[in-house]
Amino acid sequence: EAQVTQNPRYLITVTGKKLTVTCSQNMNHEYMSWYRQDPGLGLRQIYYSMNVEVTDKGDVPEGYKVSRKEKRNFPLILESPSPNQTSLYFCASSFGDKLYEQYFGPGTRLTVT
Amino acid sequence: GNPVTQMEGPVTLSEEAFLTINCTYTATGYPSLFWYVQYPGEGLQLLLKATKADDKGSNKGFEATYRKETTSFHLEKGSVQVSDSAVYFCALSDRTGANNLFFGTGTRLTVIP
Questions:
Q1: 3-class secondary structure, B94
Q2: Interfacial A residues in 9-68 facing B (CB < 8 Å)
Q3: What is the residue-averaged pLDDT of chain B?
Q4: Which end of chain A has the least Cβ crowding within 10 Å, N or C?
Q5: Contacts of residue B98 in chain A, CB cutoff 8 Å?
Q6: How far is CA B32 from CA A76, B54, B58, B67, B108, in A?
Q7: Which of B43, B44, B99 sits opposite A56 (nearest CB)?
Q8: For residue B57, which residues of chain A lie inside 8 Å, CB to CB?
Q9: Inter-chain residue contact A107 with B42, CB threshold 8 Å
Q10: For residue B95, pLDDT beyond 70
Q11: Which of B19, B64, B21, B32 shows the shortest CA–CA distance to A102?
């Protein structure tokens, strides 16, 4: 089954404790992206990757890091989480020629206390 | 700012009622327009799209027409079902770069029997 998976689905952590949210897709998509979803703000892009070893900032990259060492994986790293990073996070992927038709993962709900 | 302006929710309708969710955009040129749907507990899914003026996207009984003269892409369905209860996002891509997929704030639809 074609899908984007994220882990964990739910995470409660404390300020400053490094964490990683994993994202994996099995569709051989070149493009992958991370979004955060907040009430009243919709989805905002954090980082994206056009292919292996190619990443770039989205609209709200502060406080986040990413890496793309393999085509299928695109982890999101919070080196020192803060309460304002409490949010619902989505990973997405797409083919190169249908870049804007994205497949989304199920989401990760993160709470930073 | 966000080039997508979407009707505020929430929207509550009775089964078989007519649905309209308004979406307008600001963009130069000819962006592509999308509607995504997010069912409870899931990631977003592409519902329909239109890539040029006067195109009509349709899927699952939903329709939206790309109106360049009014810069609008309103979502409609003639007879909603309880299973249509979800959050609907209008989105725009101006096709100038990989990070340029902009989402509206989302409209929550609840359909009651």
A1: coil
A2: 31, 33, 40-45, 48, 50, 56-59
A3: 91
A4: N
A5: 31, 48, 50, 56, 99
A6: 28, 12, 15, 11, 23
A7: B99
A8: none
A9: yes
A10: no
A11: B32
Q: Which residues contact A110 (CB under 8 A, 6 or more apart)?
A: A11, A12, A13, A19, A21, A81, A85, A86, A87, A88, A89
Looking at residue B98, its pLDDT comes to 57
Q: CA B82 to CA B63: how far, in whole Å? A: 18
Q: Which of A9, A56, A2 is nearest to A34 (CA)?
A: A56
* pLDDT single digits (tens) A62-113: 999 999 999 999 999 999 999 999 999 999 999 877 777 889 999 999 999 9
CB contact under 8 A, A102 and B46: yes
Q: What is the mean pLDDT of residues B54-75?
A: 96
The type of residue at B46 is: L
Per residue in A6-36, pLDDT (tens digit) is 999 999 999 999 999 999 999 999 999 999 9
Q: Provide CB contacts within 8 A for B31, sequence distance 6+.
A: B3, B25, B92, B93, B94, B95
Asked if B72 and B24 count as a contact pair (C-beta separation under 8 A), the reply is yes
Q: Where are the alpha helices (DSSP H) in chain B?
A: none
